[in-house]
Amino acid sequence: MAFLPGSGIAAKHRKVLLLVALLATFAGADLLLNRPKGSGLTWIGLPVLALGAFLFAWAVWPQGRAPAAAEGSLASALLRRATWGGRLIPFFPALGIVVIVADLAYNVALSATPALLTEDTIVLLAGAALILYGFVPARYARERDFVLLFALGLVAILVLPLMAARAFVGDFDASVDVYSWAALAPQTSGILSLLGVSNTLHPVAGSTAPGITFVPQNLGIPVTVVITTACSGIYSFGIFASAFVAFVLTEYGRPTRRLWALLGLGFLASYVANVLRMVVIVLVGYYTDSNQTDLQNMLVAHSYAGWLIFLGWVALFWGILLRFLPVEKGAGTAPGAKETKRREAGCGVCGEALTPAVPAVRCGCRAMHHRACLEKEGRCPRCGAPWSREKAAPAGS
Predict the structure, then answer these.
(1) Total-model pTM
(2) What is the CATH number of the domain that holds 359?
């Protein structure tokens, strides 16, 4: 067989599979990169990540035949431009090796410890994605593009800003907590005050990170929570944002206002979830910890509840998103497959309504397009086939 078994099930429940795949991808990567302290969850990160990759491949696999390359997606267009029409792709393996060697050299020359930390893991992942990219068959283009964009997004969000901040302060081994000071601690403190939890935001001696001091109801003595970069949730934010952007770029073919709004909403939801995560952790300590618990409840919330809260919030956001926003099927519809009325009513290229006043054509995969849109695009965004004036059938045929 040239296609995955059960592809009919995948076609019927595509949005559910996409939701589960994205959540598994986020959860697995978060467990590997943002290891919950004191928990035994880290070891399941790799199988969960592999499950997410499998479900994503299954969800985007076309029913009844091998997939075409992911032509027509924003990801493919972006990579074509970034690689000078694909001419630079053969150099990806060499670039990946350079990235990995540079990271190892940085650890030896500039870092106080040669241990591979979270940022090193991200860089090594990006290097491996570059090395393997050109060896992946074109029929897996969508999955290949997703992995590469996800890895590069992690570098752009979590590694490059940290390196720039360290270069600015002149210490390449410093713990830079700009995110905690600017976008997390003040907001967390303000929300806690609105909820009636008296607290103070202040610098912490011997640390570059901010601290929030409060008095738990059942403890009676001040407790200070130091929000370092490792505890700020920035890694969870970066993983979600990278996976979300990679998903949007590989699933959609044209930059529209709705798409930009979607990206903005995704980042906002991720940020709000991160602040909510920190607020809940402090509230657990404020209301439940006592002399008997010795702050263990808040520590458990930090290790387990914080991760689950963020994952739950993201699941809610993605679930609502996939429920009300149509997802393009890319190269996933077999010839002769029955289209929904909603898809038949819109151009497969621009998404606008098909009307008798505007000439339209039907591709061999049964996708409907405005003739002008298809001529401009050059190929069908649904199946990836080059457009041919001779082969294109009128819309009514």
Answers:
(1) 0.67
(2) 3.30.40.10
In a domain, 358, yes or no: yes
Residue 337 has pLDDT above 50, yes or no: no
User: In which residue are the tokens 């998103």 written?
Assistant: 321
| Cα separations in angstroms, 380 against 75, 147, 334, 385 | 16, 24, 13, 5
More confident residue, 12 or 7: 12
CB 127 within 8 A of CB 106: no
- Domain finish residue from 278, 306, 329: 329
Strands 223-226 vs 360-362: parallel, antiparallel or unpaired: unpaired
Backbone angles phi, psi at 225, to 5 degrees: -100, 115
**Phi/psi-derived region of residue 175, left when phi > 0, alpha when psi is between -120 and 50, beta in every other case:** beta
Give a yes or no: residue 248 inside a domain.
no
Q: The tokens of 14 are what?
A: 């595509």
Q: Which residues, in sequence order, are bridge partners of residue 202?
A: 211
* Phi, psi at 237, each rounded to 5°: -60, -45
Scored b (16 or more CB within 10 A) or e, 233-249 reads bbbbbbbbbbbbbbbbb
CB-CB contact of 89 with 133 (8 Å): yes
pLDDT score of 141 more than 50: yes
Question: DSSP labels for 122-169?
Answer: HHHHHHHHHHHHTTS-GGGHHHHHHHHHHHHHHIIIIIHHHHHHHHHH
Q: 208: domain range? A: 177-228+254-329
Q: Taking the C-alpha atoms of 247, 248, 251 and 255 in order, what is their torsion angle to the nearest 10 degrees?
A: -160
Query: Within 10 Å of residue 151's Cβ, how many Cβ atoms?
Result: 23
Three-state secondary structure call for residue 223: strand
**What does the alpha-carbon distance between residue 142 and residue 53 come to, in Å, rounded to a whole number?**
11
Task: Count CA atoms within 13 Å of residue 69 on its CB side.
Answer: 12
Among 329, 359, 379, the domain-final residue is 329
- How many independent structural domains does the chain possess? 2
CA distance 124 to 131: 10
> pLDDT digit string (tens) for 56-80?
777 655 444 444 444 568 888 899 8
